[in-house]
Recover the amino acids of this structure.
């Protein structure tokens, strides 16, 4: 995985954390859940890239 992909996934995860924090601060459960979902998606994308790299590096 390239460094650009890694940075992109991290940015998506941080965006999700910010959204979750905003949801908590404003007592908006929907926004909080959306932020948590964004974090899970970013982590899943990173994991997928890591698995793909494990097979292509051999």
């Amino acid at each position: 995985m390239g460094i650009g992909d890694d940075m992109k996934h991290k940015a998506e995860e941080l965006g999700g954390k910010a959204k979750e924090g905003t949801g908590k601060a404003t007592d908006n459960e929907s926004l909080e859940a959306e932020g948590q979902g964004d974090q899970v998606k970013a982590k899943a994308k990173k994991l997928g890239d890591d698995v793909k790299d494990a097979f292509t590096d051999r």
